[in-house]
Amino acid sequence: MGYIKTLKTKLGGHDGGQNGMEKPIEPLSKHVSGGKMKSVKDPNLVEIPKPKGLPVIGNLHNIDLDSPLFSLIELIEPLGPICQLTFGSELNIFVSSIELLNELCDESRFHKIVTAELEKLRYVVHDALFTARNEERNWEIAHRILMPVFGTIKIREMFPEMKDLAQQLCLKWARYGEEYVIDVTADFTRLTLDTLALCTMGFRFNSFHNGSVLHPFVDSMVRTLKEASVQAALPGFIQSFRKRSWRRYEKDTAFMRKLCQDIIDKRKGKTDPDSHDLLAALLGGRDPKTGEGLSDDSIIDNMLTFLIAGHETTSGLLSFALYYLLANPQTMEKARQEVDEVSQGSPIAVEHLSKLPYLNAVLKETLRLQPTAPGFILAADKDEIIGGKYLIPANVPIGVLLHMVHQDKAVYGEDVAEFKPERMLDENFNKLPPNSWKPFGNGMRGCIGRAFATQEALLIVAMLLQNFTFEMADPGYKLKVKETLTVKPDNFRMRAKLRRGGTATEFQRELQSVGSVNAKTSSTPSLVSAQAAGGDKKPLTILYGSNSGTCEALAYRLASDATLHGFHARKIAPLNAARDSLPKSEPVIILAASYDGLPSDNAEEFFDWLTTAEKDSLKGVSYAVFGCGHRDWVATFQRIPILIDDLLQKAGAERFAARGLADSAVMDLFVELEKWTTDSIWPAISQKDGKADNDGEGQLINSLLKVEFSEPRQLQQYSQLVEATVMESRILTTPSAIGQKVHIDIQLPSGVSYHPGDHLLVLPVNPMRNVKRVLSRFHLTWDTIVRASGNDSVRIPVETAMTVHELLSSYFELAQPATPRDIRVLAAAAEDEATKTLLNNLANTSYLEDIQEKKTSLLDLLEKFPEIPIGFGTYLTLLPSLRLRTYSISSSPSWNSSRATLTLSVLDEPATTEGSERFLGVASNHLAGLTPGDLIHVATRPVKGIFQMPTDLSKAPTIMIAAGAGLAPFRGFIQERAYQQQNGVQLAPAALFFGCRSSHDDLYRDELDAFESSGVVRVFRAYSREDVGSKPNTRKGYVQDSIQAEKDAFVQLWNAGAKIYVCGSVRMASQVKDLVANLVYTAGPMDAQKEFTPQEWFKRFEKTRYAAEIFT
Fold first, then answer.
1. pLDDT digits 0-9 by tens, 241-275
2. Does 1063 belong to an annotated binding site?
3. Which residues neighbour 985 within 8 Å (Cβ) at sequence distance 6 or greater?
4. Hey, which residues are catalytic here?
5. Residue 593 belongs to domain spanning
6. Would you tell me how many other CB atoms lie within 10 Å of the CB of residue 40?
7. CB–CB of 960/991 below 8 Å?
8. Residue 598's domain is classified under what CATH number?
9. Which residue from 551, 527, 566 is spatially nearest to 704, judged by alpha carbons?
10. Residue 434, Cβ neighbours under 10 Å: how many?
11. In a domain, 1063, yes or no
12. Within-domain flag for 335
């Protein structure tokens, strides 16, 4: 906002030094000598490029007053990522690359400055959020008071008001008819201004009910903005000759402020406890830091600021979005199809908006190409060096040109000028370098209304696509940008036609009908809150973060243990639910994992918040952290748990126990959690509270989980999962194969999407064989009705009746190896001393050999020691919750966007525990037993990190390496390549190296042969247990042997820029990595070989050209 007018100021003259000006811009003479920046002794610094200028006026003559922004871009584009210009005697620096902008966004070095038109608007709104200088207190107070109002939850509560205004726009277009030529920008300006006024202060301008006559406030606001623009462009001494204009400016300002004061007085005169809008916060809010409130004048300043700053940018976004959709019909149809699939014919509801990723990407891409606030101005706190070589003097204005930054080819590729929403989908957007997309400004001075604008824009475009078709009034219209306070399409006109025909009256009834959405409408984070456990148990909070559900299962196990040690888990919740709200009145235990060095999906918001927590902001919080990880990811092992631990302490929280660590490569996570809590947590908390720890194992003999029998009730599933249908299930291996592999084809529900290589989360069901074993051990029939009560830390529906078959099938891990604690509970319950001794030995000296390595479950032990009198409730309390299983999707949505396939090995092998028959994999046996028509509960999850398919298959060679079911993600990759080939893409080379035991488990052989014959991929196979004879491109041995045999072709692809993907077991991936490192190292530059080992040298490619996905 105001950036374009800042340019015009520089063209028209100086400000004149009016009262209230910020620290004067440094004169050129302070930083230049002889027409150049002052030289420095550092030989690594270079002069910032600049175009030729004229004496006295500098580069003023290069800028077009009617199009200052784009003439500036045209001037500086040839100069590179940074340049310096002079306007009169004033030095200005402009930055246009993401690399340099990333440094400028460091708020410890650079700050926002207020210049030109924004400075003139200070007469109207003073030190409000947008026009304040960093050192002014009022904006800080207002910012802290208003942040909760513009949080996601509060914005959702504004949806009805937003929809009210959006319906008014839709009804206007419907009533005017399909021949009416719509002034797009004008109508969107009316809409966004009315929406802001209604949502933030409960006031209606009624812009759609008064024909072409607008509310007097609107006229005053328009004149005020225009006058501020004129003042900014004229030399200061001219103002004394513009007395009439100044009187009009004063009169308009007084009128707008009087209207706002009337609104305030009216609001003060009535009590409305349900009012939670911006005005309510401004009137009643108190700064959480200082306890101060805002004066009426400051409240008016901020009311006007939101009306002025908010409506222009959002109306521009909507206008540009409609233009780009009309200019790209396929994109519009794709967005419309998404809206239709999500809404299912119902009126757009707030629940729908989060399910529109493509439409959200359309808006992001629109703001990339046309940031409606086209830049912002910063200054260095002191002399700084950026890019390692450019000197930035203190207090010199640095203009950030977002139109150039957002089209940086180094980040967005050669097609930066094309409108491609796909690049803004979450899986691609999240991979962008920091600060690559900045339409809402930067840091603490960024746009506080971002969530508001995003929800408003999503709602409006979704409603328009759902109800209208559009065409340009002038089919030959080419985008022309109008530069005013912001940027908007110039003279953009269109026509709108109701999609389903009918009259405007019928359409009105349709809009006002009550839509139903099969989704939960709670606007608060989902928390599992335990009820008070009674007695003198002290509360604690347990927070978890992981994608696979492991830490969640650990959290519930921990909660169950807590009750036995005199504590009650008041909350068991994802880390994101604790953002901004870590309790200080009770201990907090955090269980977290890393995903390629990043936080899990349900911990990202918490982690982002924690990284910005101020010193001592968490003073009073008492915490401990338990980290889960896998040592094969050496570079990122335990990264997130360690950072959370350190960041909490830096923010003033007190660590009451040393961080726990579990390595799933060599440890049982439940066992390690048990050791950590027994040795560290319970003693530490008990000592802190001045009481002795309770004997947990002794208490478990008399379980707190009480079971009673009642009528059945339907099982409640995980809320994040959706119901899907099995369309096909077939065995991929022959009867002679060692081990069975199956192919499952799944119909996904509407609105669920994925990309090649993504994962499918599956909620499994325990094998019937194991369920029957439990039923037999406890003398229960499958249809016995049970109801659990007394211990809500166990993750089952408490006080809910269900059959014991449902309970055992769907809620607990029956085959999980027993932990030492489990075994000690059995020992405590045993009545025979010999049995006690034997069990205690198993829990200690022989645990690793007899329990963990043999995968001996609690059920195995109960069958081995049937005489132990343990209750069914105690048994359930000891079991971990059933986890979601993760599988790579083995198809591409280009094959069928509503279907996803899985390729998996079925784990069914002889048991190593004495007396047990076979060990069955829970999820694989469940999936293998499904037949067409069966329902399962699933969720898609985007693959993270660099294990994503190349976006441009014409330029990126690909090497895929897999063993067994590790072929799954690459089948999806190959399907996508085939689809693009059919659509005219000239594919870059790709090779698949695939290892299996023999021809009996050579997966998808016919399909891969067909792809190979059509040039989609070359396949090289290795059979480990079968002679291959003269079979082409097939070797006896392992996949590594196949790579070694084809090393010349492998290295040739590598040298052509290939990216390597590996999917398989830990052992296979490790050996492949060593081999690949040696091959490319040997073929690499000789100077590298003198300095590094192959593995050291290859590390440089692990984040860009080598991606591995390991399964266990």
1. 778 888 888 898 899 899 889 888 888 866 454 56
2. no
3. 953, 954
4. 313, 440, 447
5. 528-694
6. 11
7. yes
8. 3.40.50.360
9. 566
10. 9
11. yes
12. yes
